[in-house]
């Protein structure tokens, strides 16, 4: 098995954001009614291609507990009526918000959606009252442009781990 490198990135001030404009054919909507089945579906739809496996074995009860946590918020991106991607924000202690999951569906990669969806996620994180730091992690299993998108939007790497 080859080595996997994980990159931890942070943004300590909204002024670091280098946003991208919204493409005409993309809209982003917050999920306001918790549906654990939707969170599980989005995780599988987007994550399958990137080997997201940490939540695959969760029971319905565990998914329900996860999705209904008051410190979790979910947004879904749509293009031409179909799901284009999603992201989840997790509010942690001391004003910290993690972009817990972020990604596009396979058919929407390469269409210029990633930069705007990440901009939306960052703005949503900073807009969540009391936010003082936003962070995210990615790894070498992710899309080849993922790390570049994070740094282009203004995130800075603060830790790297290789397994």
TrEMBL record:
UniProt keyword annotations, A-Z: Acyltransferase, Transferase
* Source taxon at top rank: Bacteria
All copies of domain N-acetyltransferase, residue ranges: 29-163
Give the matching Pfam families: Acetyltransf_1
Q: Cross-referenced SUPFAM superfamilies, in alphabetical order?
A: Acyl-CoA N-acyltransferases (Nat)
Could you cite one Gene Ontology molecular function of this protein? acyltransferase activity, transferring groups other than amino-acyl groups
UniProt cross-references to Gene3D superfamilies, sorted A to Z: 3.40.630.30
The keyword Transferase appears for this protein: yes
Q: Does the keyword Transferase apply?
A: yes
Name recorded for this polypeptide = GNAT family N-acetyltransferase
Which organism does this record belong to? Answer: Pontibacterium sinense
């Amino acid at each position: 098995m080859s080595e996997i490198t994980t990159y931890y990135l942070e943004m300590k001030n909204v002024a670091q954001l280098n946003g991208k404009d919204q493409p005409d054919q993309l809209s982003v909507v917050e999920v306001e009614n918790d549906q654990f089945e939707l969170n599980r579906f989005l995780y599988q739809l987007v994550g399958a291609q990137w080997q997201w496996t940490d939540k695959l074995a969760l029971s319905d009860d565990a998914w329900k507990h996860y999705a209904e946590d008051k410190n979790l918020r979910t947004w879904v991106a749509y293009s031409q009526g179909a799901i284009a991607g999603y992201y989840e924000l997790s509010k942690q202690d001391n004003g910290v918000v993690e972009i817990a999951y972020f990604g596009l569906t396979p058919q929407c990669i390469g269409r210029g959606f990633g930069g705007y969806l990440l901009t939306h996620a960052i703005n949503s994180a900073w807009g969540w009252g009391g936010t003082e730091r936003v962070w995210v992690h990615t790894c070498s299993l992710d899309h080849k442009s993922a790390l570049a998108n994070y740094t282009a939007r203004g995130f800075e790497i603060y830790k790297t781990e290789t397994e």
